[in-house]
Automatic annotation (TrEMBL):
Top-level taxon of origin: Bacteria
Protein's name in the database: RNA recognition motif (RRM, RBD, or RNP domain)
Segments forming domain RRM: 47-125
Keywords: RNA-binding
SMART domains assigned: RRM
An example Gene Ontology molecular-function term: RNA binding
Transmembrane segments: none
Compositional bias annotation for Gly residues: 130-139
Keyword RNA-binding: yes
PROSITE patterns: RRM
Organism, as annotated: Tautonia plasticadhaerens
Cited CDD domains: RRM2_NsCP33_like
Length: 145
């Protein structure tokens, strides 16, 4: 059992912190509301680049090394098959500077790399997929009607 200490004055109660105390707010015109912004993070406009016709033995670090000569590479990844883990022959590189990305695209497009001619261009936004597998028409497959 812990003995109670008497004679201590209670601590003063501090006012509750509000979300507005932690970060300044800025106006978000897209949503027409105020949102917190971070003071420490600098907003960087990344440029995403598609790299196609890669040799199947190429890796993310290989892509990073290939693009590093043009500027800062934020990320580089080779897309792999989910089931086999084998490269699908294309990947994506994100660069922090649009001018460096443009220089890399201009220099590396149609250049031989690992015995193959690369396809290098600005990545397009991913299209939304429609549907979700299945048989689609609801069937009758194998019912023997």
């Amino acid at each position: 059992m812990i003995p109670l200490v008497s004679g201590l004055a209670p601590l003063p109660r501090l006012p509750a912190r509000r979300a507005t105390d932690s970060a300044p707010l800025c106006r978000d015109p897209a949503r027409d509301r105020r949102v917190p912004t971070s003071r420490s993070k600098k907003r960087i406009a990344l440029k995403k680049i598609y790299v196609g016709n890669l040799p199947f033995q190429a890796t993310g670090p290989d892509l990073e090394a290939l693009f590093a000569g043009f500027g800062e590479v934020v990320s580089a990844q080779v897309v792999e098959d989910r089931e086999t883990g084998r490269s699908r022959g294309f990947g994506f590189v994100e660069m922090g500077d649009a001018h460096a990305a443009k220089a890399a695209i201009d220099s590396l497009h149609d250049r031989k790399y690992g015995g193959r001619r690369l396809t290098v261009n600005e990545a397009k936004p991913r299209e939304a997929r429609v549907g979700g597998g299945g048989l689609g028409d609801g069937g009758g497959h194998g019912r023997g009607d």
